[in-house]
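thought: fold this chain, then report.
action: predict
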Amino acid sequence: MKTKGIEYQFDSVLWKYPGKGGWHFVALPKELSKEIRNTLKSEEQGWGRLSALAKIGNSEWKTAVWYDTKLNTYLLPLKKEVRKKEFIQIDKQLKIILWI
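observation:
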């Protein structure tokens, strides 16, 4: 898969949203989110959404990040398919590459 956009690499921990639906997320580091928002805010779509390409381990997929105003950071959702393939569990430290 060809990559496009600006590459960002970071470490983060998987967590599960406590509300209905049980979405799993990693939060981008706040300083990185600030840099992304300053650079790409004009490209955000509804709800602070930015299209992205993500990679964890050997899994690479099209996705998006959303800006969470309560946490002041972007959130990257992790699909069950990716979590299963990469043996990812809640509270596990992950190395992530993101292209926006």
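thought: worth noting. The first helix runs from residue 30 to 40.
final: tokens above.
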